[in-house]
Amino acid sequence: MKKVFVYLSAFATIVSVVQAATSPSPLRAELLSLIGSPSAHLDTKIRNEFSTKLQAFADTPDVDPSDIIFAIGASVFGIDITTPVKKADGGSVEKPVIVDFDFMKQFMKDVFLTYGCTEDQAEISSEVLIESDKRGIDSHGLGRLKPIYCDRIDKGILWANKPISIIKETETTALVDGNLGLGLYIGPYCMDLAIQKAKKYGVGFVVAQRSTHYGIAGYYSQMAAEAGCVGFSGTNARPSIAPTFGVEPMLGTNPLCFGIPSDEEFPFVIDCATSVNQRGKIERYGREGVSTPRGAVIDNEGIERTDTEGILRDMVLGKCALTPVGGAGDKMGGYKGYGWATTVELLCTAFQSGPFGEEVCGVDRETGKPKPMPLGHFFLAINIESICSLQTFKRNTGNLLRALRGSMKSPKGPGRIYTAGELENEARISRTGQGGMPVPKALQQNMIDLRNQHPNLKEKYGKLPFE
Ligand SMILES: NC(=O)c1ccc[n+]([C@@H]2O[C@H](COP(=O)([O-])OP(=O)(O)OC[C@H]3O[C@@H](n4cnc5c(N)ncnc54)[C@H](O)[C@@H]3O)[C@@H](O)[C@H]2O)c1
Question: How far is the CA of 324 from the centre of ligand 1 (A)?
């Protein structure tokens, strides 16, 4: 009873604040009525309608970017429409560039083909990248195309077209060699193999050796969840995390990811690094000009650093390290994140005697030249039907997730409790509603550079959507 009261009173406050900001727009009035009831945000149909209408409202001439309806869309419905930004002169409204997903996937595919991938390799690799953008994980989609994949191919430390070989195989396990080809292609191959084994024998576990950056771990766990399996995947990466009570970057940001099917429109997918922040987040703090939270970064002197600009500079020089989930020291349980990061590094290297730490930093310390970063990954699929009915399992999962989201909310919080995978699902809905993904200036420039470098791309993409 108490929790219902807390929620209703928070909800009433939101509605009255919105109404107070009176606007004659009928579209705005419709949005307001869609917010209508305290459980509207749980109804997929209402959420989708809200998303489409919010986008239409954002496109209205002279819309006020600071209209609280956008904040409500983000906090109550999880629909984060990139609101129009007023130009510095306070004059006309400058809209963000939104590019259609299909166009963007085709562009990325054409880039991979240009770099020498087969049709299959280009199709799958661009699919993994566009999926990150659809889920709102901007750090791992288009944003990685040039700096991580194209530039590394150009540097000769990653190869676009390499065969995948199975080194050792049993009914339930396999060791796969990626031959330093695209991790974006090796990853889906391995998880698909794990799922096939799970469907036949209950469980499939695949380890990849000599792979490269495979993108978002959640892609692989979600693949398994969508096939009726529990999915589990992780990868090691160049050294960034210092051990608890240490200051040297030793472990990758090593995501550890589970995907678990549910009866809802999206599975439970916990997909994150084992560090407090991954590098991309510190770069974002830099772009936003804000400090890095204390405890997320430690330098060689043992000082917990917050000066984002200095951190970015010193990280390149190896003078700063990220801290594991739980933060620096042991007060907030940093040793737990340290343990998880180590677990991932072990599972990625110990089965296949793979390198770690300095050996996967991408630079030869003696010559300063780029060198390959042979990474390891693991993929586990557990066929749920081997243990119980999938339908029952999904219902049980859904019931637990709904109970969590329906539990008592913090009166100081944003008014929502989420479960993992939900925000990514919301991003997909809202981005689909707005007609695609936002492409910031820096990424537009990456696309222009790639297009201008390659005659076939220049011919096909004479004019990009933002030109
Ligand atoms: N390939 C690599 O080397 C590598 C390394 C590190 C990270 N990554 C990827 O980077 C991406 C981002 O990682 P990150 O560490 O920045 O993730 P993050 O800190 O943004 O956390 C994302 C996860 O937390 C969940 N989540 C977020 N807010 C929540 C809330 N309030 N309640 C419940 N769940 C919530 C999300 O649903 C998602 O599962 C991931 O896809 C990860 O796989 C890849």
Answer: 14
